[in-house]
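Notes from hallway chat w/ T.B., transcribed later so I don't forget. T.B. wanted the structure written out for a chain they're using in a teaching module, and asked if we could keep both sequence and structure tokens in one place. Agreed to drop them here.
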Amino acid sequence: MRASLSRHLAGVTVAGILVVALAGCAGGSDAVSSSAVAESVTVSQVAGDGTLLIAAMLPGTTDDSSYTDAVEAGVQLAVRDIEASGLGPAVSLVLRDAGTSTEVPEGADVVYFPFLGEAEAPTGVVVAQVGDAPVTASDDFVARLEAISPLLEDSRYAAESYDAVIVAALADLVAGSDAAVSVGSALPLVSVSDGYACTSFGDCATALSEGESIHYVGQSGTAERSADGLAVGDLSLALF
């Protein structure tokens, strides 16, 4: 894995399709030990195009429009933190109004649906969902969000949006690929119970580059391995 990670950190990234949604119910179970993870997790290797293209389908003109600023600020802050670390994959962020169109932008690697609602989730991709109990963001985190969105009045779902992007990027690093099947298969390795507890993308990426296992502690909670993939607070990610 370390050889694959070294190639990735050098800029040789690969791409698949990752769909992230904030809808429905989420759940998780306790993280498992690193030895158990190693025995039960096989990371798939599928090549891609070298850039992690994230299409964020904002609530916009939908019934959930009041959360638009928070969701947008959350994903933008996550991408900025990944880029600032100098350790992540090349990331390109595209923002779309889900109230206007739910069509996935061509070439998207990550499709982030803040509120998927009754729409049918696509198969063969990683889907992230969150329940109806968003966490209360910390004052420090809200201050960072306001630096991006000065008129932000409601920070609900910003933490979950931030963590969805960070977790996807960390799974990308673990897998050495951002193809959906690779990211999905690597999700449990973002939460190794006796791994290094890291609280930022840069901190986690540094640990991975040094060959350590990690246990991500995000803005919306501590990452825990679930039956299907990974959960961070009320946020869950799994390969469908």
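Follow-up for T.B.: The longest helix spans residues 68-85. Might be a good example for the class.
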